[in-house]
Amino acid sequence: MAMDSLSTDIIPALHRALEELCENPPPSIPSPAATPKRASVALVIRIQPHPSHRPENNAEATNLSDFFDLPWVQRGDPECLFIKRAARKGDRWTSHVALPGGKRDAEDKGDYEAAVRECLEEAGLDLDGGMAISCGKLPDRVVTTSWGTVPLMVLCPFVFLHISPVPPPLHLQPTEVASAHWVPLRTLLSPTFRTVEKCDVSDRLAKQRWGLWGRVTRWGLRLALGQMEFSAIRLWPSLSVFSSFGGDFLGETEAGGRSWGRPMLLWGLTLGVVTDFFEMLPHNQPAGGWHYPTFTGPDIRAVVWLMTRGLRKRNWENARLRSMAQALNEAEKDIRNSMVLVDSKGSGNHERGPRASIVGTLIEGYYDVVRTAVWVTLFGRTLVTGATIGAVWWRYGRS
Fold it and tell me: Residue 45 gets which letter from DSSP?
C-alpha cells in the first residue's frame, strides 16, 4: 500500500466512516449480572492542516458534511489522540497507551456522559464545548481477564471529531496521565509501524497477585509458558504533551524508569477498539494487520497454531461477512451501478445485522482452545521428559 495513495483517499473515507457511525449506531451491551461495572473511552480525531493549505479563517462547521467540504480539511491529515497512562504500582494498565476514558460514576447519566467527563478530567479536553462533533460509537465489548474467563467490565467507545484547525490545549491529570499524543491516522494504518508486544503470561492468568502463593504461581507460569505475544503498532506522534507534574517526568520509580526507554506501543484492548474503526477505512481487510495472541515458546506456539487453525478460519470468514468496510463498499458499488434503490441517506438496501466488534468476532472461542492447547503442551512435555529420563536410565542406570 503506497502512503501517497492512502493520504489521498483517507479524508473521504474518514467522512464516510463517521457518517456511517452516526447513522447506524451499534446496540448497547447490558452489563453482566455479576459484573455491573461500565467504562467509556473517547476516540478523538482531528485534521492537521497541510502547510500549503492553511485555513483562511476559523469558521466553525455544525455538521460533518460542512466540515469535510472545507478546502483545508480536504487537504489535511487526520490524527487520533492517545494518552500514556501514569506508572502506578498495582495498576493493571500502568504505563499503557490508551484512549482517554475511565469508569462510569454514579453521577453520570449514561455511558456517553462518562466518556465526556473522563476526557475532560484526564486530558483537559472539553468535548461538549462546541469544538467537537459527536460521531456515534463503536461496538461495546465485555473486558475480561484470565484468558476470557473472568469478566471485568463493559467498555463503551465513543468517537468525536475536533473541528478546529488548531490543536486543542491539553491539561493532563498527572496522577492519571503521563503524556498525550496526536498520531497521524495514516501511520496507524501503515504496515511499516506494525510490530508485536511481549508480556509476562502470569499477568494474564495469575488470580492471586500478591503474597507467597501469588509469587509461586507467577514463577510457575513464567517457567512453563514463557511470554505471550500480541499484535501492536509503534506510535509515531506528530505532537506530544507531557505532564511535568507527574512522577513519570523525572521520577526514578521502577515502572516510570523503564517506560521512558521503550517505544510507545498501541496493543491489547485499545488496539482492539481502534481496529474496529480501522476496518471501516479503505486499503484494509477486516482487522488488517491484527494477529492472534500466541506464545514465544516454539512448542506451545506450534500446538496453539494447529489446534486453533479451524476456529481461526471460521472466525476470519465471519469477520469478513460482518465487516463494515465490505458493507459500505457493496453499498457504493450498488449506487454506482444503479442496481438497487437508494434511500434518502444514500445507502443501498443491504440487510445488516447488529454491528459487533470485529476483534471480538475473531477472538470468539479462541482462548477456550488455547487453554486446552496449554494442557496438551504441558502433558506432551511431561511425556517427553519421562521418556528421556527412562531412556537414560535404561542406557546407563542398569550398569
Answer: E
Residues facing residue 231 across a β-bridge: 196
- At how many degrees (to 10) do helices 3-23 and 324-337 cross? 90
Q: Cβ neighbours of residue 324 under 8 Å, at least 6 residues apart? A: 20, 279, 280, 355
Which cell is 231 given?
Answer: 499484535
What's the CA dihedral at 273, 274, 275, 280 to 10 degrees?
Answer: 110
CB 49 within 8 A of CB 164: no
Four-CA torsion 147, 30, 318, 3, nearest 10 degrees: -80
Query: Which residues on adjacent β-strands are paired with residue 144?
Result: 151
Question: If DSSP codes are grouped into helix, strand and coil, which group holds residue 13?
Answer: helix
Contact 189, 209 (CB under 8 A): no
CA distances from 389 to 156, 220, 223, 383, 392 (A): 53, 22, 20, 10, 5
- Enter the pTM of the model: 0.85
Give CA–CA dist 11/264, Å, rounded.
26
Interval 243-297: pLDDT, tens: 888 767 666 544 444 455 678 999 999 999 999 998 888 655 556 678 999 999 8
Residues 137-185 have pLDDT tens digits of 999 998 887 666 778 899 999 999 999 999 999 999 998 999 999 999 9
Q: Which residues make beta-bridge pairs with 182?
A: 81, 239
Q: What number of helices (H) and strands (E) belong to the chain?
A: 15, 13
